[in-house]
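Posted in: Structural Biology > Protein-Ligand Complexes

Title: Requesting predicted complex, iron/sulfur cluster in pocket

I'd be grateful if someone could produce the 3D structure tokens for the following input. Sequence and ligand are given below.
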Amino acid sequence: MKGNLLSGPEPDPSTDAGHTDAPPRVGFFTDTSVCIGCKACEVACKEWNALPEDGLSFSGMSYDNTQALSASTWRHVAFIEQSAPSAVPTPEGRAELPLAGAEAPGTDGGQMRWLMSSDVCKHCTHAACLDVCPTGSLFRTEYGTVVVQEDICNGCGYCVPACPYGVIEQRPADGRAFKCTMCYDRLGAGQEPACAKACPTESIQFGPLDELRERAALRVDQLQEAGVTGARLYGHDPQDGVGGDGAFFLLLDEPAVYGLPPDPQVTTRDLPAMWRHAGAAGVALAAGTVLSFTLPSVLRAAASAAASAASAASAALRGGGAR
Amino acid sequence: MTRDDNPGRDAVPAALRGGGGPDGGRRRKRSGEEPMVPRAQFQDYYGKPVIKPPAWSARDIAGYFFLGGLAGAGSALAAGAHLTGRTSTATALKFSSLGGVSLATAALIHDLGRPARFTHMLRVFKPTSPMSVGSWLLALYGPTAGAAAVSAATGLMPRAGAVATAGAGLLGPAVATYTAVLAADTAVPAWHGAHRELPYLFAASATAAASGMALAAGPLRENAPARCAAALSATADFVADRAVERRLGMVAETLRTGRAGRLRRAARVLTVAGAASAALWGHRSRPAAVAGGLALLAGSACTRFAVFAAGIASATDPVYTVAPQQARLDEQARLDERAGLDERAGSGELGG
Ligand code: SF4
Ligand code: SF4
Ligand code: SF4
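-- Reply #1 --
Done. Output follows.
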């Protein structure tokens, strides 16, 4: 329990946060290899959590007009259109329809492909948003998830730049910060979160985190064997910079392609060093002040001592000359 | 359902403005100005930021960094002046510290999404939250600095006033430097990347501002310490600024270009000119002392606004988040590979 409260592997965050008899930690495993981009998850999340509409615009970003996670968008389905590095394996018997513009320049004989991924708050083991929240509004639930208390948050906005994934945000018209709660209310009633319930392909899987990690390890091996060399897990590793994510992913390309940071770190890891440097800087400031009050008089004393020594010497010389 | 406009979403998206596009295999290139550091090319998600920049207003938060510094370092100088019998300067600094901390607190409250809930800042004490630590620090420092100023103004309770002056002088350096931790304990690349150096830059900049105030408001015969502090802090400011720039590597671009670049250049000129004017002529010419002092104050403000602007710029462009992280991963992979080779060589697997 000790030693890893700021960073590093931490097997039981809810007990460390003071919960007794906590249920097993739950999470999401989002397997993007089966996502069909239907956005049922986005809609279910908006519906269940009664999130306000936050912009109806045409983005020009493939089929992604949502664009990003925000205070009022807690699931965001990313769409990436790219030329696949090599032929994409097609399951037996699936009809292949030609994609418009598949022969676009620069495809190097590869095929066009879509990557779709439903992004969400990662419910970090070491959540920077929670660490820096000055009001205690953000807290760790008994399920190991991270939730904002709307009646406590005063909209200081500190959690926003602290999150290494750019998840939590202040709602402009409201001022307070909002993000995915992993449907805390549904968990309490023994239900799975709305997005996982709505997902028709089981791209979003909900369950005890340990089980999900095992399942994900099997799935990535399976995909690798089937020739999907780009398949990789993201956020599954308790050794990573945030101690592992409560919501982790199976991706088919580099994380940055999906708008995810390649090596996120909980900044609080460096907080002890920062306080030390700030302490040293404060001491330096005080020392500089003391110096400023002593140095001028020391210099003046030295100068007058030198001057009197010089005049004494010249007087002596003059005296010598007269003799 | 209510409507909650998100202005960012209604703007013309980058993809339609040219630049990135839904053409697959978007390799990131910078159009227009040449990057100072060749960027590793990587794919991003339609140029969208990876992290969210803070929604803080520059006037409130960078202004707070400046005012907090002026107040904190000012209290340290005021304590020195009080102790050495430079009463006019001490009183002026006590007033400026009270004014600074009051304005700073007002700016902080104004910037809250729910200003009426500002008392929630003192609901808990959380050492992991620099903002919580800072709130408690301000709650201690503000009244102390206030008592020192009121006693100096009214002449009432000189003993208690002296104690308050000393207390504010001790708390002041913490008020001046903790704001660097506040900024650095975020995922903002230009702030967190310099988390070791930023406190020294803030300490130097705060001292420059406070010495500037002492020069501008104090009489000539008392200003020798302020001139000395101006020279020392301008030197320290220069050194710390260089250290920040070196540490940031490619992210330092955000300090050199755009709004941050302009502010930073102004800060350098103002700080050096102010310190030179104060040190060379500040003991005999009132105009030189005042001009030098005002230049130092303006320079310190420019430094804080520059750091703030660089942070926003570094959070807004995904390259500053992704490239350093990718470089870290690549370096780690290289080290692991070498360690693996050494191990195998050590165990004789690689043979002669
Ligand atoms: S992803 Fe961001 S908002 Fe979600 S728990 Fe982690 S730090 Fe907090
Ligand atoms: S905005 Fe709200 S949730 Fe975020 S750090 Fe401030 S008080 Fe906490
Ligand atoms: S995660 Fe599931 S619900 Fe969401 S877009 Fe993909 S398939 Fe649809």
